[in-house]
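Recall that a protein's primary structure is simply its ordered list of amino acids. Everything else, from secondary elements to tertiary packing, is in principle encoded there. The following example makes that idea concrete.
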Amino acid sequence: MKKRTMILTLAAGSLVLGLGLGFAQMGQGRGPGAGRYAAATATQTLSKQAADALLEALSGPEGEYAAYAMYTAVIDKYGDVEPYVSIRKAEARHIEALKRQLDRYGVVYPAENPYLGQVSAPASLEEAAKAWAKGEVANVAMYDRLMGAVADYPNLVRVFDHLRAASQERHLPAFSLAAEKGGTLSPEQMQELHGTFASQRGQGQQGQGGRDCQRQGQGRGQGHGPHGGAGPHSGSSR
């Protein structure tokens, strides 16, 4: 079967929408591809709405599995080019972050990436970078849409917020710059981006620290809700 061309536009999203929904159903135990990593016993009860949101973030058409597969297609065709190599590593960590949450709640999901081998790279690296700049916008929109479904689970909100921020603040600038530079980034350009990200992260942590102290002061003497336990680390740094 001829591989479909990877172009992250609304048309491309519709091409894989059926796949994304099908794999989400399989992740819920309705098909033969149920994930082998599912926890034997759920540690907490998760609503169907929240479980569906987690599955979509992992295996939906704008989710982490799809992104990893499409970065792989570019690397397979053009070699170890940046920013694809670095961002694919981050995507792998994001996949594991979502899997840990799915395991935590005992939600079954497709263990293998269903998009691998099903997409191929665009005709040029410049075209690929432009497509993935749009793809990161779509990924951010997905997390914005799914956030309400996990609002009752602070640990899931934190994970979704982290993954959304990675796409908005790190991936999108990298692909946008690559598109301006002909499709790829040099080691020097990647280093400059990393320095910018580190500076932004430090500023964000300082601001977050102040907000955390304020919340702690307000929250003294208050009990935690049923979903108030801290989630595991997402394992991502972009």
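The chain has one domain: 4-219. The chain is about 65% helix and 0% strand.
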